[in-house]
Structure formats: C-alpha cells, structure tokens
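S.,

Sequence below, as promised.
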Amino acid sequence: MNVVVKLGGSLINSAPDIVNRLLEYSETSKDRDTILIVPGGGIFADSIRTAGKQYNIGEVAAHWMAILAMEQYGYYLIDKTSANGVGSIDDLKSGISILLPYRLLKETDELAHSWNVTSDTIAAWIASMVNARLVKVTDVDGVLVENELVHEIGATDLLTMGTTCVDIGLPEFIRANNMDCVIVNGHYPDRVLAAVEGDAVIGTYIKGNI
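The prediction came back faster than expected:
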C-alpha cells in the first residue's frame, strides 16, 4: 500500500523524530510499504509570504518560491535523518522517501499558482498520481469547530468552513478526485504510525465522496 505523508512545517522541531519513527516502523514492518513524505513550507514559506507583501511579489513567482520552500524543508529533514530524498515519483522504492518537489512540479505545472494551493493540495495531487492514501500530519488534532474536534467531515462541508488547518484548495481537490484524507497530530507519533497503517486514529477524516 502506498502512503503519502504530508509533514507540516509547523512541526519543524519535532519533524525529524517523526521521520525517524517512520523509518524505524518501515524497517521492522513485514509489508515494507512505500511511504513518501511531502514536506510543508513552514518558516521557509512564511518568509516568502512576508517578502511578497513587502516587495509586491506576483502570484506566479510566489508559487514557485513557495515550492522551493518545500524543497528547503525537505533538505532539512534529509539532513536531520537517514531518509533518502527523491525528485521524482517514478519507480518509488519501498520504505521511506522524502520528496524534493520543485522539479516534478515545474515539469508538470498542473496546479494553480495561488496561495490557496499550498503543500496540502500538492500532497493530495501527488497521492492521486501514485494511487496512495493521504495522511496530513500537523500540529493540531484535526479540524476544530468551537475547539471541538470534528472526527469526520465531507469535503463539500469543509469547503464552507473558511479557514481551517488545511489549505483552501485541498477539499476541492479531494472532492473532484473522490479521495479521502486523514489529519493527525504529529505531536503524537503513535497516531501518525496508526494512520500510516490504516488503523482508526484520533484525528479528522475528510471524505471526498460527500
């Protein structure tokens, strides 16, 4: 089973530990699934948002700069762990890989050049390309409504909620592609491992078919 793990930039301090836990899991697992980590943008993308406002950077330039920010975060994760980096989704090997996404996105250029389409939607697009389940790992338990965790929600309903822990483009993309996504809190690595295994976990399940 292929799994795409979107690893949020908000977890930059604990992300290497999460990757190492995934590596340990992969090395001891009987199935040796293919797990592709898609890095978020984190502080690297935040600097582009700030500079974009200060220097009036256009959306197209900001889009590619933000993807390069994902690449920077990917190199950070590679530096802090023993995971391999890959620049392509062709012939992915079993085990853990960290995607360096710039070349892939530049060659295909299928997604909108907008801050509405960030690493969440990019991870979903990649998951659709490799026929993988999508796990979003972030710094909160999932989608919250009045500080209460929503355990399951349809992509259509999520579209109407405004700002949440996912980018604006994600629910629209998974609805259009009839995909699901589970959101888990990376401060609890056992939840990440459970989500990767496909087990029930504390988090939010986004259903693309409703």
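DSSP finds eight helices and ten strands in the chain.

Coffee later?
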